[in-house]
Amino acid sequence: MVFLLGLTACVQDTGQPCNTEADCVLGDTCLTEEEGFPGGYCTTENCDVSGCPDPLTSECFSFPVNNQDRIICLALCDFNGECTRAGYDCYDVDNQQVCLPTDGAGGDQPVSGAIGSSCTDDPQCTNGLCLTNFPSGYCSQLCSADADCPSGSHCEQVGSQSFCYRDCQDSASCRSGYECSTAELAAPSCVPSDGTVVKNPNGANDGESCVSDINCKGGVCLKEAAGHPGGYCTTLNCDNDSECNDGICTVGAANTFCRTACSDTASCRSGYECITTELTSGTGATCQAPAGTTPAPTVGGDDVAIKEVTCSSGGQLSFNVSDGATGFYIAPFSSEGRAIAPTRLTGDNGVNLDIQNDYDFYRLNEQFLISITPLLFPGSDQARFEGARDNWGGNYTLDVNGSGEICGYIIESPSEGQVIDVNFYLVGVPGVDAGNPLSNGNFSTMLDSVKTIFGNAGVSVGTTRFPQLSSSDVQKYSVIRDFNDVFRLTALSEDPGPTANERLSVNVFLILDFAIPEVPGLLGISPGVPGASGVHRTTGAGLVFSSVNLNDSPSDLGQTMAHEIGHFLGLRHTSEHGGGGDPISDTAECADPQDGTRCPDANNFMFPFSITGVPQQEVSGGQQYVLRRSALIK
User: Would you tell me which CATH number, out of the four given (3.40.30.10, 3.40.390.10, 3.30.420.40, 3.10.20.90), belongs to the domain 419-576+599-628?
Assistant: First the structure.
């Protein structure tokens, strides 16, 4: 049993060459040359029942073989939209990129990279541009007239820029989840459809069990191999509950998706818990797979800047903040790895904040870190959030919902900070010396972009360190295929030194790429807003970024990095998918941030989407106010 689990996790069998079924290690079928697959093609039949044996590198489809539909597994393309076997290319099938024979076996699916096809990164598109703010990505290119666009597409102006859109006669000629529309467009174009996405009418509703995407109405199965017991059907990129398949629309790390509503854990499927969740319309409770427990941080009691809080089993933490402090960060955590949720902060200086309502913009942590839920005060420059307070000194009580022993630690800000130190971990980045990345021009350009943005906030990048992981860890985590691995990777961070000055630094992991099916186009992620600051070797103690754009657009990668570090330090998006925005007084909001070039906050470094050709380096005065009181700005 253990051997098979290890084999499933490490071996990609689907799509490998074969002569007979005996050549396939995991699959039960060999598609032969006579069936149109040069050199043979290992697969698994009837995968809608049992799933694919290598679920992180293949997917189940209804696919024509010799003009007969069969339910089989197809190999997913590499992270860069390529197939390693000669005679095979990457094709777009049901918004997934799969390896198929170059001669087009399987019918009329457009070759991956054509205008309008799905993508996760620019290199996957023929013309080098992936619009990742479109559901499942949208290959395009910049244009000034229709003549600039390839056959089958035309030029559409979107805000201040113009892009090539796929032509259409009706919605049947568009990808799943897209429709043929002329609304606010010059010509009929394939664009994301409004309303509920039903890719498989006979599939299961959101929240029900599954083994493959084909099992779900919404066309996405969050796999058991990625930490979802029995699989979990969902619908991606919802704007509201009406676009779900019997679920409710929730805000995730990089997109929105549908989950099952619940009243308590007893109302959820076995293996799932009823957890308070950020929705596109407020907050609610949904059935979720419990996250891996967060190891209790090791906090040095001798450091003045990092102070331990006496543990309590009564649901309250009492602590003192030094007189004159311009702000403070507190990280309550369960020493037993249990889920917790801060509810109210009161102080003898008049502070009285309802975390679940007044400070609901920080409740995102209850979904990600679960058993450690950091808070930054002030989290806003607005007076109603105590943002106008000059002195945060005083005696405080923090009420925390949760069972068992609850502990915590505090990082005070004695004055407005001016410097941030960074620990860079390079995890399988090609062409870059992990021990001396500054010798690489593109890495230096990326870092300069980070420095420019934080310079706009009055913060300089100070010490940069380059610790190295073991070769086995580099091989394991160079391509991240599920969110659990994000947390496992950040837990590999090292304590950079014994002093508070050394420990108050941010860990940045630069990997080869992400390949998380439910979040196409993911460029970077911060596990927590704010993140687990001042501690290391702990789940969530760092940020993770794809290096796929390092060579082609290092400055853009630097913008992405600064954006996610902004989250880690305590900033939210200026505008949120589905409406709303951050609690900062002087940042604009956009009703539809997916239509980025029309948004007044598109140039801000905390805008939710990266927009090709648009510099996103602006930092508002209110954002500076919060950043310079953050735990890691010294």
Answer: 3.40.390.10
